[in-house]
Design a protein that fits this description.
Rossmann fold; four-stranded parallel sheet; alpha/beta; seven-stranded mixed sheet; binds 6-O-phosphono-beta-D-fructofuranose; single chain
Length: about 350
Amino acid sequence: MRIGILTGGGDCPGLNPAIRGFVLSAVSRGHEIFGFLNGWSGMAEGVYRKITIPDVEDIVIHGGTMLGTGRFNPFKKGKEADLQRVLDNIKRFELDAVVALGGEDTLGVAHRLFDEHGIPTVGVPKTMDNDLAATDFTFGFDSAVSVATDCIDRLRDTAKSHNRVMVVEVMGRHAGWVALYAGISGGADWITLPEVDLDLDEICAHLLKVRARGKNFSIVVASEGTVLPKVDDAPRELDNFGHEILGERRVGETLAREIEHRTQIETRFAVLGHVVRGGAPSVFDRVLASRLGVKAAELVENREFGKMSALQGNRIVAVDLKEAVASLKTVPLELYAEVKGLFAY
Ligand code: F6P
């Protein structure tokens, strides 16, 4: 078979191990692999490189993606010619299958290509946000949370030395998984998520209580998607998939200002941003991504299209792409309630 592969959306650690898992499996079954560069734009422009085993043998430890990525959306309204170019190139390169590694947006395109145009697609779930449905975890998340935790450990030293509150803003879009996990593992004094109504009175009362007990510093982990009334009424720029650029909302900065004003405790903020998307993948992500890549090769071999490899429990299974992109996997309120005792005590 002639198989096209691409990575789309934000990069994250684990993409290279997943590509490696897929390529090793598919090439040893006798298939030919065409790596399209920079996401769906590579497929629209016909920009590719042939991928063979030596190309992937040594990439399991590397962050980023050897194929490049981007947020090009062939289904963007008013850009019908882009979709046609993608369809034409799939025909021109005589591709028997297209494998897309991505999150909600990239896999949404893979799903629509399959569903509306009969293109034989297979998906592999990645995103540091961990917000993709039908899989327990996406690779990129564990690595991002590990880096965020390391940053919080460092910020704790400086917060402690200066008797300050430190607000740490992390990415994660409209799901608070990164903030929740980094906050728990970093021993945060409060965690704010997009899923949970923000109560500044409650947060500030808790920070004052912590201080009154004798702890001279506090860490607040804030998800970039936290809903802050003052920040949320301004119109903002959207990306190609119609998402707001959430980092521009300055959630960490706004929260820090408000906390300092209300508690009179000196407060600083740090925005971890893209730092947590770089570096070597964690062990968990290397193993998960490799297994998901191998499963994707099996799906192609068996011509099980319109599917995505996924983690359920400890098993790698096939799920419908439709199910994966139907809704965002956000943090359940019961989970937040379960762990709230770790900071709101
Ligand atoms: O979806 C991954 C993510 O890192 C989000 O957490 C974040 O909001 C967004 O991508 C940032 O996108 P970009 O890399 O385009 O700035």
